[in-house]
Amino acid sequence: MKQQSNKQFSINSFPRVRMRRNRLSDFSRKLISENTLSVNDLIYPIFITYGSNVKEEISSMPGIYRFSLDLLHKEIEYISSLKIPVIALFPKIESELKTPDGKEALNKNNLICKAIKISKKINPDLGVITDVALDPYTDHGHDGIIHNNQIDNDLTLNILCKQAMVQAEAGCDIIAPSDMMDGRVGVIRDTLDDHGLVNIQIMSYAAKYASSFYGPFRDAVGSVQNLSNKSKKSYQMDPANSSEALREIRLDINEGADMIIIKPGMPYLDIIQKAKKEYEFPIIAYQVSGEYSMIKGAIQNGWFDEENIILETMMCFKRAGCNGIITYFAPYVADKLITNLK
Ligand code: PBG
Question: Rounded distance, CA 262 to CA 69, Å?
Fold first, then answer.
C-alpha cells in the first residue's frame, strides 16, 4: 500500500521517468535531436591579398591563409566541391594604398572587385558577401573617416554607399556593412535601389560589439598596425549591453536589412536567442577570428578533441536560433558532415 502511493506520487518523476532512456541508443538520440546542422548553414570567410603565388598563413590563425588572386581559384573550387553555399571576402591591401579616407575602397579595380569576379567566373552559384567598412583601406585602421578627431558618422555614410555600389557592380550578391555607422543600412539600400540593384541583399552587422575577439582578424587584414587609438568603442557596442543590441537590430530591420549578423558569436549567444525571439528574422552568427584561434590553439595543444569541439560549437549556434554561421571552420565542418553521412 505504501509503495503504491509512492508510485502515484512519482508519476512524473524518477523512477518512472528516466531521462536516460531516450539517450541510451544512437537511433533514439537521433530521433529526439532538436536541432540539426547542415552544410547549408555555413559561410566561409576568405582573406585575399596582393602579389602573386602568395599563400601565407596568418600567424595568429593557424590553418587560415591569405591568398593572392592567382591562387584564389583553387580555394573557390575547393569550397564549391564541399557545397558550402556562401563565402565572405576580406582584403589585405598594400600599405601604400592606405589613406586617411580609405579611397582605395572605391577603386572599381581593387582587390575585392577582382576577387568577386574570379569567384563568380569559377562558380556563379557560390554566394559572395563583401564587407562594407573602411578599415582595410584607411591608414588609421578605423572603419570610418576621421574628422575633428572623431569618426564622423555622416561623412562616412557617403563613402560607404559608394563602396557598396562598387562591390555590387563588381558582382557580389550580399553587401555586409560591418562599420556600425548609424543609418548606413537605409542609405545603402536607397543607393542600390536608385541604381536598379534591387536584388542585392544586405546582411548587416547589426549588433557588433567592440570586442577583443577580433584581434587575429586585424592581424589578417593588416589593420592592427595602423589602428591609431586602438579602440572602436565610439561605434561598436559595449559588451555590457543587450537591450541596445535589440534596438540596433530593430533599426537595421526597419532600414531594409534582409538578414542580420550578431558578432562575436559564442560569447553572445544570449543576444542571438533574444533577437530570434523578438524579431523572427534571419540571423547569422559570426564565430570570429579570436574564437577560431582560441579553439584551434587548444586543439593544437591536445586539450580539445578537434571534431567534437568544432561540431559542438556549430550546434550551439543552431540551438541559440541561428540560420547561418560565418566560421573559419566551415571547410572542416562541411568535410566532416559529408564523411559522417557516408
Ligand atoms: C571590419 C571587420 C572586423 C571583422 C569583420 N569585419 C574587425 C573589426 O571590426 O575590427 C572581424 C572578424 C573576425 O574577427 O573574424 N569592419
Answer: 29
